[in-house]
Design a protein that fits this description.
Layout lengths: L1 E4 L21 E2 L2 E2 L1 E4 L30
Antiparallel strand pairs: 1-4, 2-3
Length: 67
């Protein structure tokens, strides 16, 4: 089984500056929208890049930041 946190669908057009498509976390009743399904039903992964702003906290590491 796989725990999958869902995101909004892609917009019709990419962002003008980055030319990347912007998505956001999906919520239901003010909680993250997630599902559990068999791994066999996963047919593609997706790599997401964060929007961090002009400065990134140098204290962040893969051990201290989960998202």
């Amino acid at each position: 089984l796989a725990y999958i946190e869902l995101y909004t669908p892609f917009k019709d057009q990419p962002e003008p500056y980055s030319r990347l498509y912007k998505i956001m976390r999906s919520y239901r009743d003010m909680k993250r929208h997630a599902i559990v399904l068999p791994v066999q039903r996963i047919f593609r992964s997706c790599h997401l890049l964060p929007v961090c702003g002009p400065r990134i906290n140098r204290a962040w590491t893969s051990d201290t930041i989960l998202e």
